[in-house]
Amino acid sequence: MKILAFDTSNKPLTVAVVCDGDVLASIESTEKKTHSVSLLPDIQQALKDSKLSMDEIDLIAVAQGPGSYTGVRIAVTVAKTLAFTLKKNLVGVSSLEVLAADGSEDKILVPLMDARNDNAFAGVYQYQDGELVNLIEDHHTSMEKLLDTLKQYESDKLEFINATEHLTDLIKDVYPEAMVMDTKDSLPEADKLAKLAENKPAVSDIDNFVPNYLRLTQAEHDWYQKGHKKDGNISYVEEV
Amino acid sequence: MKKDTLILSFESSCDETSVAVIKNGKEILSNIIATQIKSHQRFGGVVPEVASRHHVEEVTHCIELALDEAKVGYDDLDAVAVTYGPGLVGSLLIGIMAAKTVAFAHDLPLIKANHLAGHIYSANLVADLQYPFMALLVSGGHTEIVLVRAPGEFETLGDTRDDAVGEAYDKIGRVLGINYPAGKKVDEMAARGNDIFDFPRAMVQEDNLDFSFSGLKSSFINRVHHADQIHEELNKDDLAASFQGAVLDILSNKIFRALKQHPVKQLVVAGGVAANQGLRQRLKKDIEERNLDMDLIFPPLRLCGDNAAMIGAIAQIQYDKKDFADLTINADPSLDF
Ligand SMILES: [Zn+2]
């Protein structure tokens, strides 16, 4: 199976073409690039490097979030449009799972994304028989709550991935012995994303494929706080 | 005979996701518009992050509908066009990424279109344009007088120094208790009321072609607040009529000043506020009174708001000039002419 995979959910941009487990091409850039500018040229380059045409690709794999809202949207829009327009299979993989894929085989893996104000997007994963298994679903959480939840695991087994300096400080306060990989050492790799996608079911409804933001917009949050409820009879977007 | 050109066009600069198929820049084969108004009405105005999220939800479905309705396939297309600015960056990016992807996947030339130029060329879908022509672009984001000297050659003669005219409507609408977008309701109320409050007509004495609406907006709001304080009951229809009366005087004054400097055969009025009935009647009357031999072109209501058909219309001109873009295009939120 030939897979085109890409992830722009954070600062790094990564694109890979993988065929039956072999990495045919891989582009990774950590320097500050504008994802909206670079993504399609990088996809084009990855296909060229792998000597494949888009027609030969069987599956499109994309990091579906969480992450930077704009970043995730860029990759998801390209992935769903590509799958739709060329009638390809599409698989969305958690951006946190992609980060966890880089973790140690014998650790409890906690991939993170700093969501500011002592909050994070986080999930808990573990390798079991070579497969990455999700133990706690990706969610938006305060660091305090997350670190408390993690008390159920042996603290020397914990491995935090993609922690900013600030998150590292918060983690070290509670788990001084835990392993922490900082953001520079925690780069998403699209070839790993491709391999994760291989074991997941393809999206059945491409039109309704959207990012996993894991967080309401501030405006919607405030709207619900005021006691409003979504009215099932109103479609907020309508064709006119 | 010249071969027909079919352009698949995208527009997502604000709160409408739209995809169209346009033939030769003139004929609308399809023009799918998904509007988010009901969503943003919850918040009293467009929330950029919410808008971007909706665009992702809608975009592929709109492409599908546009191709189906036009009864064309990718092989029939000659180019893909997309609005790259001005607008909300997060919204623009969804149309841009989708358009680039379709162009890439089907090896089609890509055209990056200016949203303002698109509004002006919505007129091309209903009339044969004769150069030079004058355009009055009035919307929630823009108030400009533009001279179009030749196909795709624009010269901005006048611009707003503060609020856009549509924005002023929304702001005074809020004071009248009207939910965004307020233009249509205020227009209806104005038709019932009388211009009795004598709001200021900013800059109409000045010999330039620029607009200002913030002073008008402030006097309106002050007048209403003052009445509230002294428990005076003001007739809302009269307030609307007085506001609209001032707006129309300002627009009329400046556009005819421009037309005097640059006589043309056609005046195009485009953008969301071009749907305003008061404006339509006023300019028609002004032209008759002045005995001008000039066509007044108002695109139909569906083409006044944001839509992809107008992007297909301007894109045709760029297509003819082979003005193509590559896959590195990015959004330009503050793009002008
Ligand atoms: Zn517009």
What does this structure look like?
The complex is a heterodimer of chains A (240) and B (337). Chain A contains seven helices and eleven strands. With 240 residues, chain A is of the alpha/beta class. Chain A has two domains: 123 residues, Nucleotidyltransferase, domain 5, CATH 3.30.420; 83 residues, Nucleotidyltransferase, domain 5, CATH 3.30.420.200. Chain B folds into two domains: 134 residues, 2-Layer Sandwich (Nucleotidyltransferase, domain 5), CATH 3.30.420; 169 residues, Nucleotidyltransferase, domain 5 (2-Layer Sandwich). Chain B has a five-stranded mixed beta sheet with strand order 3-2-1-4-5, sandwiched between helices. Classes of the chains: A alpha/beta (240), B alpha/beta (337). Chains A and B meet through helix 1, helix 2, helix 7 and strand 11 of A and strand 3, helix 2 and helix 3 of B. Strand 11 of chain A pairs antiparallel with strand 3 of chain B, so a sheet runs across the interface. The complex binds zinc ion.
* Ligands, ions, cofactors: zinc ion
Structural class of chain B, please? alpha/beta
- Tell me about the biggest sheet of chain A? 5 strands, mixed
The CATH topology annotation of the largest domain in chain A reads as: Nucleotidyltransferase, domain 5
Taken together, the total number of domains of chain A comes to 2
The name of the CATH superfamily of the largest domain in chain A reads ATPase, nucleotide binding domain
Strand order of the largest sheet of chain B: 3-2-1-4-5
Shape of chain A: globular
CATH class of the largest domain in chain A: Alpha Beta
Largest interface: A-B, 42 and 43 residues
The CATH superfamily of the largest domain in chain B appears as ATPase, nucleotide binding domain
Query: Can you tell me the CATH class of the largest domain in chain B?
Result: Alpha Beta
What is the name of the CATH architecture of the largest domain in chain A? 2-Layer Sandwich
Overall mean pLDDT of chain B stands at 96
Which CATH architecture of the largest domain in chain B?
A: 2-Layer Sandwich
On the 0 to 100 scale, the average pLDDT of chain A is 95
Helix proportion of residues of chain A, in percent? 25-40%
Count, helices of chain A: 7
Total beta-strand segments of chain A: 11
Q: Say how many strands of chain B there are.
A: 10
Distance between the termini of chain A: 41 Å
